[in-house]
Amino acid sequence: MSFREKSAWISFVTILLVFGAYFWNVRQVLAGQVEYGAAFKVEVGLLVAFFLIEIVLHIAIAVQAPNEARAPRDEREQLIEMRATRVAFQVLVVGALAAMGMMHLTRSVWAMGQHVLLAVVVAELVRFGGQILYYRRGV
Fold first, then answer.
1. pTM score
2. Most exposed residue of 44, 57, 91, 108, measured as fewest CB within 10 angstroms of its CB?
3. Tens digit of pLDDT for each residue in 4-26?
């Protein structure tokens, strides 16, 4: 498995786990089960954990293969990133438009912001998932 594929796996799994917990917390706030102040502390902790996990794991794989980590992207890797980003951008646009529509239902700027963040997170999952798929297919 190449450095870039490992990097995509790390980002995909980290985003899935951390933001899964993040949006579970948001769901509890929107349902009125948890106060916003308590939820905010959990959300900040999850975001800090996300950044630390990403940094530590990427450093770990870079130490394993320093030459590969420093190497510029070849044409195949650039093509994989472009294809995955193209699909993810379409998902982001649909998600952002849906988030704007949700504002009419919730009438809460905070909830709309969370829906926009959800659109960004789903788009990133699609992007990294697409990269993994294209690396596995050998595109």
1. 0.89
2. 44
3. 999 999 999 999 999 999 999 98
